[in-house]
Amino acid sequence: MGTGNSDGAGRAPTYLGDVTQGLYYYGAQAEASTGMAASLVPTSGVVEVRPSETFTIVSSLLTTSLTAMSVIFRGRMAYADNGPNISLDGRSGESIPFSLRVDDSNYISMQFSTWSSRKGMMFAIQEVATVANFAATGSSDYTPGVDVPVNLAAAYTSSRIQMASEGVLVTEDATPVALPDLSAADLLIIPLSVTANASQFNGFIEDFMMVSDDLTDPGLLLASTP
Asked: What pLDDT does residue 6 have?
């Protein structure tokens, strides 16, 4: 923003105003991001932390399938290597992009891990009556930082689970024999990880889509290409 006396030489513009006119600024907010600006967090002179939020879509508004579900998640995130691992109840990790769950033993989800030597490993997991299957990226496909691009697409089916990350297919898990009945499950977008030291999902969601079908490998590749 500039005023009429901006000279283009790098000097800051000035505006003196008078007793009846002036300029008022409200809501200026500096952010460590090259992506989209976030909503204002009023500080009132003290340091404030943006509260965690989860977007929930109730089951009555969703269409699910017993044979195939696909999810596209695209955005940017900031995270540190705090070491959380995933868990087979679908509720743990450095962050959780989404979860569609009936209970701890019946769900589909994406979970992000920085456990041990992992710097950033995304899992697409489905569990049916305590039997879990997953497809995953490499252990360090993501690197801790600010504005880390996240472009994911996953297919959860009764015969396979597959994921593409940043336009690359991971190794398919062809061992599933069923998909959980998710007709009573609420969709949770960026639910909170129960891991105490987790970064949580700190970033922006640019696109999210869930369909009751298998996008197939070409569709996953296309949807996850940056």
From this structure: 47
Q: Which residue has the higher pLDDT, 6 or 57?
A: 57
Mean pLDDT, residues 46-63 taken together: 84
**Residues with Cβ within 8 Å of residue 27, at least 6 apart in sequence:** 40
Domains of the chain, by residue range, sit at: 55-224
Residue 88 and residue 196: Cα distance in Å, rounded? 17
CA angle centred on 172, ends 64 and 75, rounded to 5°: 65
Is the pLDDT assigned to residue 4 strictly greater than 50? no
Spatial distance between the Cα atoms of 63 and 220, rounded to a whole number of angstroms: 20
CATH number of 55-224: 2.60.120.200
Cβ atoms of 138 and 117 within 8 Å: the answer is: no
**Residues facing 158 on adjacent strands:** none
- Its pTM stands at 0.80
Rg (CA), the chain: 22
